[in-house]
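Researcher: Next entry in the queue.
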Amino acid sequence: IVLGGMESPIIFLSLPVVLLSGLLMGEIFGAAMVGLTGLAYGTLLLFENANLLPSATTFLNPTRQWAFLGASLVLVAFFARLSLGSIQEELLRSHQNELDLALSNRKLETLRTNLASRVEDRTRDLQRRALQLQVAVEVGQTISSMRDLDQLLGRVTELISERFGFYHAGIFLLDDTGEFAVLRAANSPGGKQMLAKGYSLKVGEVGIVGYVTKRHEPRIALDVGLDAIHFKNPFLPDTRSEMALPL
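Model: Structure for this entry, 247 residues:
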């Protein structure tokens, strides 16, 4: 600048610097750069007009130089503000697109989780049905291979308990009078104690077994503590749910 003064080509390199400062650093920093650049230009003009700096031949009089300086700074500020506004709008649009994409991803993730849960539930259901069929086949094979009723019923309770993970399984048969349901087979330690004592229940009066043998329909108590019909058996203290099915 000293070699060429205000008419040096290098003076115009400061204009892109001001423009980029406004674009990259924001409006306040850009305005500060415009002010500082204007101050520097004005100081340079004053020094040149006072012949304090050597400069090239001046083609513009001082008034035109000041006008040129002011117009240049105004144009720089205008284009900086215009470009900054455009960039801000683009950033806002990009941010909104990111939010929309994140929302879509959350919805897709929710759908994927729900689908995976449904598939898992369906798989468990199919596995449960396959297990039921397997147990039915094994019970059928046991029936066809055994002729002793007590052995047959005992093996059936063992298969049911093992395959389904039941705490206790037992089979009751009605006595000759039809008044009592007599325990004929059981797999649990408590059930075997009941067998040894000749355990029986009054039909239609005692517990869920008595209810089922009277009405000939199944009954399930998911929580025996809330079931009015359930009979608390001292031989089976860990019972939490109970199901009885008529044969």
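Model: The beta strands are 170-174, 180-186, 200-202, 219-221, 242-244.
Researcher: Noted, moving on.
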